[in-house]
Amino acid sequence: MADLKDKIVLITGAAGAIGAAVAAAVKRAGGTAIATDLAAVKGIDAALDVTAEADWQRAAADLERKHGRLDGLVNAAGIAAVGSIEKTDLATWRRVLSVNLDGTFLGCKYAFPLLRKNGGSIVNLSSVLGLIGSPNLAAYNASKGGVSLLTKSVALNGARYKPPVRCNAVCPAFIEGAMVDGIAQGTRNPQAVQLKLLNDIPLARLGQPAEVADLCVFLLSDAAAFITGADVPIDGGLTAR
Question: How far apart are CA 232 and CA 241, in angstroms?
Fold first, then answer.
């Protein structure tokens, strides 16, 4: 386990499977996890709508006042919608892009001044579906492809500072949880879709949220000090094909 002792890390989408696992992993690594999601329910430290600029401005001001800095940001908030380019309506397209891409943009933008103070690390949750296409996930493909290239831009900007602000994208394949279940249930034959997902992965299983979380913690830590601007697949070999 990488060391995050004395590091302050903000996590979005922390009510989801991956976000919750990241918050728990940050704590295990000795860091302070600030878990956020749409509502401040049990296990969530603060409400944050990642699509609302005012929410990000407030969150940054709160961090400045309480801690004076930020050492890590994990943009884990995300949604998916099943639909080809022919069947995706504009409202769905905009909603997926708003949460997945706009939310990541706003997080990077408003966390950056705090991360610059002592150097820091941003981890954006992209997807293998930001690296390869799917005929029935047009909006999701576009949003995650955007996250991956935004990550590279943020990384190059952050490298100009001393100490630097690093930025990397974690690209999971199919991870056990509500999102994968929702994708399958949004099709005509959920069981067939779930079987296909398993058949597409050379390791023949779905990933675990904790596995993604451990990768995020590594990228947040000083052990990954020479890694920035990378798309890091965690996909059971899917993109090796």
Answer: 16
Q: Would you write out the chain's pLDDT as a tens digit for each of its 241 residues?
A: 689 999 999 999 999 999 999 999 999 999 999 999 999 888 999 999 999 999 999 999 999 999 999 999 999 999 999 999 999 999 999 999 999 999 999 999 999 999 999 999 999 999 999 999 999 999 999 999 999 999 999 999 999 999 999 999 999 999 987 777 777 776 778 777 778 888 889 999 999 999 999 999 999 999 999 999 999 999 999 999 8
Strands 8-11 and 165-172: unpaired
The phi and psi torsions of 237 (rounded to 5 degrees) equal 95, 5
Which amino acids are annotated catalytic? 140
